[in-house]
Design a protein that fits this description.
Elements (H helix, E strand, L loop, with lengths): L22 H12 L6 E11 L5 E10 L10 E8 L3 H16 L15 H7 L6 H5 L3 H5 L3 E6 L15 H15 L4 E10 L1 H11 L5 E7 L5 H6 L8 H12 L5 H5 L5 H9 L5 H10 L8 H7 L10 E8 L5 H8 L7 E9 L16 H14 L11 E4 L5 E4 L8 E8 L11 E6 L7 E5 L9 H6 L9 H4 L3 H4 L3 E4 L7 E15 L5 E9 L5 E10 L11 E2 L5 E3 L17 E15 L4 E7 L10 H6 L4 E5 L6 E7 L8
Parallel strand pairs: 3-4, 3-5, 5-6, 6-7, 7-8, 8-9, 12-14
Antiparallel strand pairs: 1-2, 2-4, 9-10, 11-12, 11-23, 13-22, 14-21, 15-20, 15-22, 15-23, 16-17, 16-21, 18-19
């Protein structure tokens, strides 16, 4: 390791704040978006058929600029696509909601509510003035400025015929045909872009990585970087979210939009596709998940097929993400893999959840609203307007516990890897946990073992907040961000308080010496920032089944001295390794990326648990094999430690 690992956290001088660039550009873009429109109205055409080469028919809603009498203009304009599995009428309803709020002058108050329990709920509602709902739905202002928006039900959902394939190669082929269809329309000027949130952003990035002919730019909000690693099989364990989500989409495909039914857009082909696969693969996925193996959940080829090829993206692409998104800070992993120069690939990431896109945007001293960024992006790359967006970023980041910053690269190049050793000496501030240990800069002096038994997860847990897209905000701050409730069933290792602020930036790894009582052990790890009042705010999280400890060295990241920073675990068929009861086993558990300020008086904490429901759900055989518990072995000869890139020097990084 570098010499930084031998330095105390208390020695770090205050680091320099680099600040946010591009405020003048942001003001100009906002004024343009909120100013007079080129066209006066928006025309709506429902039940538009898009025939595909295999006979499948996709159904779409088309929104175009209109004259004062409501008739579509004759001018050809760029076309923006949103391909959704959630029924295209949902996006239309979002637009109706926004129009209603605007018409009656209903806004989300800028000031925080008097009731502190409503504070986090109000933050989620900030997605409305922050542009998140506008970006999800139909953006009337964008259309009136000279764009057509087309919302399409993907194959086998909404009113479209065929079988839903969940981002598979057939659905990706459909996207290419939809782009070609758009370019052939007389109201299209030949320029085509894609946008969307969550699933709709993933298929947009798939198209960009596939280099679909005719696709000119992408604006992706809260996408995934690797669906297996980020969510579906994190550390080898399933998640409660995916079967519930798959079931919701499978049931929703039986409910076409009313306008399609009224206009005869739903026929026998639509019904035949539903009858062939009434619930798609939901039952099979649940069964294989409970069993822990199967052709679907072990199909690494399928997971690779549906994950976008970010390295192959050449067109201008904008990615927005949030630290506490369902997929974690996937935007940063995407940024690391993409390589488009000249401001053609940009990322914005901020505090927030999957259910609150844009909630931190449009505020004083921050980036503009999400819908403003969307228009600036497409104006530049589809219309050729010289608005300077290529010089914004390329990485605009709201630091955890800090302010906004403009970075050229991530992680911050000044950050040096450091080891933080787990020690059995009490920290004195973890009394509420199963065991209170310390996090230090030196190897522990004595060997100790600490038994850990499974404790079911709680609704009041930061991991649950991530999984539910922030819905647990109804429980107040304690249910959304405070990790202390979860830590009651965990081992905690806490550092001394920092004398001066310091920064942690990059991927994290916990090198953990363990022992299983049975033939399996499941480890859930988080890293938190502990305030002087005890509030424990989660910064990063990860998990690993001991039997899935095998690592793909080609995809993994190591420090110059050989420590893992981001181990890439093998979770597919044939990757299981034996776990022998009572035999020490060393694990490297990768955690989500961070860029956080540890303020003066705050502490860093490592939380080690044996379960976190509903975020992680090991299979029944895995739960049975690990029922007797597991232990952390703190051994001076084989120490356990957190590897984290930190900035301690004056003038480096941000705080």
């Amino acid at each position: 390791m570098t010499t930084a690992k031998h330095r105390s956290l208390l020695d770090g001088p205050q680091v320099k704040d680099t600040g946010l660039a591009g405020s003048e550009l942001a003001e100009r873009w906002t004024a343009l978006a909120d100013g007079p429109s080129r066209y006066s109205r928006v025309s709506f055409t429902p039940n538009v058929s898009i025939p595909l080469s295999d006979g499948t028919v996709l159904k779409a809603q088309v929104f175009r600029p209109a004259n004062a009498d409501g008739t579509p203009v004759n001018d050809p304009v760029p076309v923006l696509f949103n391909l959704t599995p959630y029924n295209k009428s949902v996006t239309h309803l979002a637009a109706w909601l926004l129009r209603g709020l605007h018409r009656f002058g209903i806004t989300v108050p800028a000031l925080p509510p008097r009731n502190p329990r409503l504070l986090e709920l109000a933050e989620l509602a900030r997605a409305i003035p922050g542009g998140g709902l506008t970006t999800f739905g139909v953006n009337d202002s964008l259309i009136r400025s000279g764009y057509a928006q087309v919302v399409v039900d993907v194959r086998g959902t909404g009113a479209s015929s065929g079988d839903w394939g969940m981002l598979n190669d057939l659905e990706q082929r459909d996207t290419a045909e939809v782009v070609a269809w758009a370019q052939a329309q007389p109201w299209c000027d030949g320029s085509v872009g894609m946008y969307g949130i969550s699933y709709c952003s993933i298929n947009a990035l798939q198209a960009a990585g596939n280099r679909v002919p005719g696709l000119g730019a992408v604006f992706a909000v809260e996408p995934v970087s690797d669906i297996s690693r980020d969510l579906m099989k994190t550390g080898g364990a399933q998640t409660f979210f995916l079967p519930i989500w798959m079931l919701a989409v499978a049931l929703g495909k039986w409910l076409p939009s009313p306008s399609d039914v009224i206009r005869g857009g739903v026929g026998l082909g639509w019904l035949a596709g539903r009858l062939r696969a009434p619930l798609n693969r939901v039952v099979r996925y649940i069964f294989e998940g409970l069993r822990g193996t199967g052709a679907l959940i072990d199909n690494d080829e399928y997971f690779q097929q549906i994950s976008p090829r970010f390295e192959d993206i050449e067109i201008p692409t904008f990615v927005y993400g949030a630290w506490d998104d369902i997929f974690g800070p996937a935007a940063l992993r995407i940024h690391r893999r993409a390589a488009s120069p000249g401001g053609r690939f940009q990322v914005v990431i901020n505090e927030g959840y999957h259910g609150s896109p844009g909630s931190q945007l449009g505020r004083e001293d921050g980036p503009p609203r999400l819908d403003v960024l969307q228009r600036a992006w497409f104006d530049k790359w589809l219309k050729g307007i010289d608005n300077g967006v290529e010089s914004y970023g390329p990485l605009t980041l709201q630091q955890q516990n800090g302010g906004w910053h403009t970075l050229d690269v991530y992680p911050r190049p000044e950050a040096e890897p450091q080891r933080f050793y787990l020690d059995a000496e009490p920290s004195g501030v973890g009394a509420g946990s199963t065991f209170d240990g310390s996090l230090t800069d030196a190897v522990p002096l004595n060997k100790t073992e600490h038994l850990l038994r499974r404790r079911m997860g709680l609704l009041k847990s930061p991991t649950t907040s991530r999984l539910t897209a922030g819905i647990t905000a109804v429980l107040g701050t304690s249910g959304l961000k405070d990790s202390r409730y979860f830590e009651r069933g965990a081992l905690t290792f806490t550092s001394s308080p920092a004398v001066r602020p310091w920064v942690i930036s990059g991927a994290l790894n916990l090198h953990l010496h363990t022992k299983a009582v049975g033939t399996e052990a499941f480890w859930v790890v988080s890293v938190t920032d502990v305030a002087p009042d005890g509030f424990s705010r989660m910064l990063a999280e990860g998990a690993l089944l001991a039997s899935r400890r095998g690592v793909d060295e080609v995809k993994s990241l190591r420090t110059a001295d050989g420590d893992y920073l981001s181990p890439w675990h093998l979770t597919g068929k044939g990757s299981t390794l034996p776990v022998e009861p009572g035999v020490p086993t060393t694990l490297d558990i990768d955690l989500t990326e961070v860029d956080a300020v540890i303020a003066a008086g705050h502490r860093l904490r490592v939380v080690v648990a044996a379960a976190s429901l509903p975020r992680y759900i090991p299979s029944i055989p895995e739960l049975w094999a690990s029922r007797h518990g597991q232990a952390v072995v703190l051994d001076p000869g084989q120490p356990s430690y957190l590897v984290a890139p930190v900035i301690l020097d004056t003038g480096a990084g941000a705080a």
